[in-house]
Amino acid sequence: MDRIVITGGAPLSGVLPISGAKNAALPLMIASLLTGDTLELANVPRLADVQLLLRILGNHGVDHTVVGRRPGESAETGQTLRLCASTVIDTTAPYELVSRMRASFWVIAPLLARFGEARVSLPGGCAIGTRPVDLLIMALERLGAQIDIDAGYVVAKTPKGLKGAEIDFPKVTVSGTHVALMAAVLANGTTVIENAAREPEIVDVADCLVKMGAKITGAGTARIVIEGVPRLSGARHEVLPDRIETGTYAMAVAMAGGDVLLEGARAPLLQSVLDTLVAAGVTVEPTNEGIRVARNGAGIAPVDVTTEPFPGFPTDLQAQLMALMTRAEGASRIRETIFENRFMHVQELARLGAKIRLDGDVAIVEGVERLRGAPVMATDLRASVSLVIAGLAAEGETTINRVYHLDRGFEALEAKLTRCGAQVERVRG
Ligand SMILES: CC(=O)N[C@H]1[C@@H](OP(=O)(O)OP(=O)(O)OC[C@H]2O[C@@H](n3ccc(=O)[nH]c3=O)[C@H](O)[C@@H]2O)O[C@H](CO)[C@@H](O)[C@@H]1O
Ligand SMILES: C=C(OP(=O)(O)O)C(=O)O
């Protein structure tokens, strides 16, 4: 298995390109099931999750081609995919594939909306929490689907087609909102989603669906209204920049010190994160090309942060912020409210010398003078990258095992960091 070896201590400088957002690319690819025409998606990151989803869609009969490199695309960022679901041969998504990536469960919505049936494996447990799908099922039932659970599969049918309805989510859910949206666009009549997730990735998917002929208003607010249409057509759409990758590299610069332009990043996608970094004493400057992040000499000030649905501080950056705060001048308080088991990085950061105490859903991080490199491993994507951030500031060598987690969500991580002066190497094996 591959490992990443980091020799800490080098400041970062230069230009680091930001890739397309994984969490938008995945539902956008799934939306290709809603039409028999071609959906062309640009700026799709080259990630293990994207490759796996192509396999899952291929299993349903979706053809894909990778279009030659376009202007603005490089070996490090982005590819253009053409997806065509003109002949869907199978409406079952099997356990072997769905169990490897949660978002693949969302195929249930377009399959049901377009073909009136879907049989999709329950996604199974995951390192960061139990992550049930009850609210996704509730949304589909509200739209008139009959749902049974059979041998670990969700079997959904809608013999007379889906019907528009009011869906009021008792808690904000990104997955629930994606599923409700993708089902409602082909339903008969009007659907209103209340307490909808406002994440930028929801807006990106809604924008693409509108290009495909869907009638959607209110995406990006807590109330989305969808007027169902009988069919959707093909479209071309460019995936928005990855705000989580942006925040991750901003924290890497804050940790290592230096001055880097995060090229293509958009500040409004992560204002709460940028505000936190400014509070920590980091220089953050949105420019026409992206976001400049710098820390030259100044210490890191401790912060008090709670994870929340967008526009609050994202749970997907909680581990990275915690890594940064291990070097702060004082104690930080980080509260995780989205997932009940998302502190798996704490014991690994401790191996590098971090001082972190857990009290329920709160982590109290006592900043230390120095971290020291060590072998570490993590059980999920963002926890793994928090160890990369810590490794950049640790004395000596940090070896990160289980690199497949990083490959799920960070395109060309070593190349991007190395180009900015970090000593990061992938050891194949
Ligand atoms: C591929 C993708 O986009 N993943 C993101 C998505 O995950 P995901 O879409 O799975 O996250 P949700 O917003 O749906 O989950 C939020 C909370 O609601 C709970 N819940 C969710 C659905 C349900 O039916 N019942 C239920 O109780 C979850 O367990 C969790 O505690 O949003 C999360 C929150 O921003 C991010 O961390 C993930 O990176
Ligand atoms: C938790 C994440 O992804 P997923 O929902 O695919 O597990 C993530 O992107 O941090």
Automatic annotation (TrEMBL):
Active site, UniProt feature: 126
A GO term, aspect molecular function: UDP-N-acetylglucosamine 1-carboxyvinyltransferase activity
Binding site for UDP-N-acetyl-alpha-D-glucosamine: 102, 131-135, 316, 338
One of the GO BP terms on file: regulation of cell shape
Subcellular location: Cytoplasm
Modified residues (2-(S-cysteinyl)pyruvic acid O-phosphothioketal): 126
GO CC terms of this entry: cytoplasm
Keyword tRNA processing carried by entry: no
Protein residues bound to phosphoenolpyruvate: 22-23
Ranges where the Enolpyruvate transferase domain occurs: 7-417
Pfam families: EPSP_synthase
Primary localization class, coarse: cytoplasm
Catalyses which reaction(s): phosphoenolpyruvate + UDP-N-acetyl-alpha-D-glucosamine = UDP-N-acetyl-3-O-(1-carboxyvinyl)-alpha-D-glucosamine + phosphate
Keywords: Cell cycle, Cell division, Cell shape, Cell wall biogenesis/degradation, Cytoplasm, Peptidoglycan synthesis, Pyruvate, Transferase
Pathway assigned to this chain's UniProt record: Cell wall biogenesis; peptidoglycan biosynthesis
Entry's EC annotation: 2.5.1.7
Family: Belongs to the EPSP synthase family. MurA subfamily.
HAMAP family assigned to the protein according to its UniProt record, in alphabetical order: MurA
NCBIfam families from the UniProt entry: murA, PRK09369.1
Function comment: Cell wall formation. Adds enolpyruvyl to UDP-N-acetylglucosamine.
The protein's name in its UniProt record: UDP-N-acetylglucosamine 1-carboxyvinyltransferase
Species per Swiss-Prot/TrEMBL record: Salinarimonas ramus
